[in-house]
Design brief:
The chain is of the alpha/beta class and 338 residues long. Helix content is 22%, strand content 26%. The protein is built from five helices and twelve strands. It is globular. The termini are far apart. 38% of the residues are buried.
Length: 338
């Protein structure tokens, strides 16, 4: 007797697993229950949700600005302050933020128009002094706690502040009100005018099951209807799919966010413009392991910013020398006593 075993069919996600997961597998099911308050009827009723293809009449901006930032921990440090009962752990870190200017369809290459580098030392100590080295000065910043997670969060918050500062400064100096795309959620940046948050990875399924199915059904260049989402903060959002060869359910899916204070017609026009604009900027998998979500201008800006962070080995040695100079014997790598 012959037994036929059904052949399992599968697809492979284009996203490089070395960067984590573009989509948390639990986000496709109901394992992660979100407490977000949703208004699915901003553009159409929840029952009428369907993939939307923006028409050619949808206005696209003449110029798109993209803001992004990178960070790097240069050394782990221990602070010895008179008010501290025991030495407290900290991190000395470098961060950089920049703006790249794109002219959609104009044949003009993307141009980096602003870059700023910041170096900081983070600690839970009550008083965090600056660290002055021969290579750089690290400005003291207090973290909410001494765990690595709390120190890393303080660094991430500082980077977000730097990105906002660079964007505000560039717009003011250039007299620009061009559309600004910021890499990551819009949290803490909702006050910026004409600004859209761009989220490449998904860890929570914010939408109910019927609407999640609409996300999976999107074709490249299509988006979901706009909806309003409230967690600890409120914003408009929509999902769109970038050009991608993979057939996995959420391949090439990104989420965009806009301010909650926009009128419905304003955010719908913005969603149409962004959905028409971004596919032409999508990354390609033979060049970027995070394609297509990591847009080509973002990948180029990140490469430049990492270069601007400076030589990690030189900065680490300068921190060790500064610690010894100030009278403390440095710990073995990777820690520096200051």
């Amino acid at each position: 007797m012959t037994i036929t075993v059904p052949r399992m069919e599968f697809t492979v996600d284009a996203w490089d697993p070395g960067y984590g997961a573009a989509l948390d597998h639990e986000a496709l099911g109901e394992q992660k229950i979100t407490t977000a308050e949703l208004d699915l009827g901003i553009e159409v009723s929840a029952a009428d949700w369907r993939p939307i293809s923006p028409g050619h009449s949808a206005a696209t901006p003449d110029v798109l600005l993209i803001a992004d930032g990178v960070r790097r921990i240069d050394a782990r440090v221990w602070s010895h302050q008179p008010d501290d009962a025991v030495p407290l752990p900290g991190i000395a870190a470098s961060s950089a933020a920049g703006i790249v200017r794109c002219v959609p369809g104009g044949g003009t290459p993307a141009t980096v128009v602003a870059v700023e580098v910041s170096r900081s030392v983070f600690s839970a100590s009550l008083d965090v002094p600056d660290i002055v080295t021969a290579a750089a000065t690290y400005r003291g910043r207090r973290a909410s706690g001494a765990t690595m997670e709390q120190l890393s969060l303080a660094l991430q918050q500082q980077l977000a502040e730097l990105e906002v500062d660079v964007a505000i400064r560039y717009r003011a100096e250039a007299g620009s009100d061009d559309l600004l795309l910021v890499d990551g959620p819009l949290r803490g940046r909702t006050h910026l005018p004409r600004t859209v948050g761009y989220i490449k990875t998904h860890h929570t399924a914010y939408l109910p099951a019927p609407q999640v199915g609409i996300v999976s059904a999107l074709a490249p260049g299509q988006r979901t209807p706009v909806f309003l989402m409230g967690t600890s903060w409120s914003r408009h959002a929509w999902y769109l799919r970038l050009p991608v060869r993979s057939a996995t359910p959420w391949a090439g899916i990104v989420r965009c966010e806009a301010g909650a204070d926009l009128f419905a017609d304003e955010v719908i026009a913005l969603a149409d413009a962004v959905t028409r604009l971004l596919p032409s900027l999508a990354g390609v998998d033979y060049k970027d392991p995070r394609a297509p979500q990591n847009l080509v201008p973002i990948g180029g800006l990140e490469k430049l910013l990492r270069h601007r962070l400076g030589d990690a080995r030189l900065l680490y040695r300068s921190l060790r020398v500064a610690a010894t100079r100030d009278g403390a014997a440095p710990y073995e790598r990777p820690s520096v006593s200051v």
